[in-house]
């Protein structure tokens, strides 16, 4: 079995109003050292070992459903785990 961790973030060229709101809130709490905040999402998937090409499989899922490829970037980590 594979454990896949997918990290999705807005592209640098895309404005992040939610990140700006969090940055403003942090500054209002005196965390003024924070220079920038970008909000993203994290997904954790468990995938059967019988997938022929795990990289192609994950990329296809990300590009068809898990991300908006127009405004988001993604990266992922794959680790093999022993099923319990």
UniProtKB/TrEMBL annotation:
The gene is purS. Its EC number is 6.3.5.3. InterPro entries: PurS, PurS-like_sf. It is found in: Cytoplasm. This is Phosphoribosylformylglycinamidine synthase subunit PurS. Keywords: ATP-binding, Cytoplasm, Ligase, Nucleotide-binding, Purine biosynthesis. It comes from Ectobacillus funiculus. GO terms for molecular function: phosphoribosylformylglycinamidine synthase activity. Belongs to the PurS family. Part of the phosphoribosylformylglycinamidine synthase complex involved in the purines biosynthetic pathway. Catalyzes the ATP-dependent conversion of formylglycinamide ribonucleotide (FGAR) and glutamine to yield formylglycinamidine ribonucleotide (FGAM) and glutamate. The FGAM synthase complex is composed of three subunits. PurQ produces an ammonia molecule by converting glutamine to glutamate. PurL transfers the ammonia molecule to FGAR to form FGAM in an ATP-dependent manner. Signal peptide: none annotated. HAMAP family: PurS. It comes from the Bacteria. Its main location: cytoplasm. The keyword tRNA processing does not apply.
């Amino acid at each position: 079995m594979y454990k896949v961790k997918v990290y999705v973030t807005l592209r640098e060229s895309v404005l992040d109003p939610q990140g700006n709101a969090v940055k403003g809130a942090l500054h209002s709490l005196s965390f003024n050292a924070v220079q920038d905040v970008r909000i993203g999402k994290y997904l954790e998937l468990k995938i059967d070992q019988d997938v022929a090409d795990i990289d192609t499989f994950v990329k296809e899922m990300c590009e068809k459903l898990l991300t908006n490829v127009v405004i988001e970037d993604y990266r992922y980590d794959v680790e093999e785990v022993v099923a319990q």
